[in-house]
Design goal:
Elements (H helix, E strand, L loop, with lengths): L2 E10 L2 E15 L5 E15 L2 E15 L2 E13 L2 E10 L5 E10 L2 E10 L2 E7 L1 E5 L5 E10 L2 E9 L6 E10 L4 H4 L7 E10 L5 E9 L1
Antiparallel strand pairs: 1-2, 2-3, 3-4, 4-5, 5-6, 6-7, 7-8, 8-9, 8-10, 9-11, 10-11, 11-12, 12-13, 13-14, 14-15
């Protein structure tokens, strides 16, 4: 698929060590959501053994297409020890001219927290309430109230998924600019705003269901 490099395995301190060095050039991966990567370098190293694990990694990429989502540039790094660690990422779209987003987060077996900031078309993207996922007793995840603000509007999301209980969620919108859809769906060119509430759930057999009560201006 256009990926080359090495994955090296070697004993280390009574456990298993590994080193990964990969490059991608015009790589394509078909599937339900096709992926294409113009160029990328991926480096990672780590250790597993004696009940401990350590993984560190970095990625630098340009020209990523994931379905309709386009990312002009991506730089990310992560460090995880025994299931706990942190990560940082920076993304830019439209060849870096219109969309920039920085992400930072903490990882733990029972909790994942992510904060974001950036801008799109000259308007600020902020997250007054960062995204926090908590592990539920049934093995699923619960998203605490998360707020994303953009262009004078905001969206608040909360819900749960995975585990034995049905998935459910609520998205509340207030004067959210529709132009933000261009980030994930290309040049739709929509103006105006959307406000209201979207409730999501699962029907029989886990089929997604939902109800939206919104006003589009």
């Amino acid at each position: 698929g256009g990926v080359d490099g090495t994955i090296a395995l070697a004993p280390r301190n009574g456990g298993q060590g590994f080193e990964v060095a990969l490059t991608a050039n015009d790589a394509t991966f078909p599937g339900a959501t096709p992926i294409a990567i113009n160029e990328a370098t991926i480096n990672a190293s780590g250790f597993f053994g004696q009940g401990n694990s350590t993984v560190t990694g970095t990625i630098r990429a340009a020209g990523i297409n994931y379905g309709t989502l386009f990312i002009g540039r991506l730089a990310a790094n992560a460090q995880v020890t025994n299931g706990r660690g942190s990560f940082e990422a920076a993304l830019a779209g439209r060849r870096g001219s219109r969309f920039n987003l920085q992400l930072a987060g903490d990882i733990a077996p029972e909790r994942i927290a992510v904060a974001a900031r950036g801008d799109y078309a000259g308007r600020e993207i902020s997250m007054p309430r960062r995204a926090v996922l908590l592990k539920t007793p049934d093995g699923g995840w619960a998203l605490q109230k998360t707020q994303l603000s953009f262009g004078g509007g905001f969206v608040i999301a909360e819900g749960r998924f995975g585990g034995d209980e049905p998935a459910r969620g609520r998205i509340s919108l207030a004067d959210m600019p529709l132009s933000l859809l261009d980030v994930v769906s290309g040049d739709m060119g929509l103006g105006g705003t959307i406000s209201g509430i979207v409730d999501l759930g699962s029907g029989p057999g886990g089929v997604p269901t939902g109800e939206a009560r919104v006003m589009v201006d």
